Amino acid sequence: MAPLTAVITGANQGIGLEIARKLAQHANTRIVMAARSEEKGRTAQAQVQADAAAGNEVLLHQLDITDSGSIARFAEWAEQELHMVDVLVNNAGFAFKGNAFGAEEAQQTIGVNFRGTANVTEALLPLIPDGGRIINVGSSAGKLSIVKDTALRERFERAARREELEKLCDNFVDAIRLGKHSQEGWPSSMYGISKLALNQYGRVLAQQLQPRGIMVATVCPGYCSTSMSSFGGSQSAEAGADTPAWLAVEVPAAEAMSKSGRFFRDRKEEPF
Ligand SMILES: NC(=O)c1ccc[n+]([C@@H]2O[C@H](COP(=O)([O-])OP(=O)(O)OC[C@H]3O[C@@H](n4cnc5c(N)ncnc54)[C@H](OP(=O)(O)O)[C@@H]3O)[C@@H](O)[C@H]2O)c1
User: What backbone phi and psi angles, to 5 degrees, belong to 10?
Assistant: First the structure.
């Protein structure tokens, strides 16, 4: 039987590295670690290969999810070398540290967490077979409740196309630029809005891919001790990798579609 092929973005460190490690321990699985820096990726690849189940191949390929050329090169390589991507784990993410806040910073954060993730997903979608899985590493910081203005919140909740989410993100960035974001009912969390857009994008995509039996699930890994949290999280990156890995390979195929479009934390569905 051909191995299951799983691509993990941002796999060189933190939760992504631990997701790659867990998936590599799953029998008959081919792991593709996507990393922005090949050098950092190579060290991580060696670690994952050392812990992999017998016979599992662990590959590495450069991918900067904000660089359209890098995405195109990755997709072309995947088509030629992998032929299909059964599981895509969109783990790569970014947050500014400290008090950084501004329109450019918001644009950059949304560019990685929402636009970059959506662009990678759409570039790889032709390679995802019917019955495949897309797992987005979202965040509880991006729940609908962070938007206090009811009309704005409803626009997010009702968004049924990526373009509507793009527009909402543009509105957020413009409001920051004009110094009106609080007045308009936006939160002061650039990361929160970027993950809210990603969380809702997961629901939009789940709806679109329902006819093909492709599961799209979003996960909050919990507050983990990684570079992103300046190693201040309350649990390990390995613990944070548990639910994404469970959704990626452990949930039986017969149950997968009942989880599509849902938001998970600690292997349990949560309201989004
Ligand atoms: N840690 C937490 O408490 C927590 C909580 C909720 C959600 N999350 C989410 O969990 C995911 C993993 O985060 P983490 O905690 O493991 O943080 P991390 O250690 O900082 O890892 C982030 C990963 O994303 C990669 N990345 C960032 N920008 C990228 C880009 N443009 N292209 C490709 N890769 C890029 C990083 O690559 P480089 O090494 O090259 O920078 C790194 O591999 C993120 O989506 C994050 O938002 C984390």
Answer: 60, 45
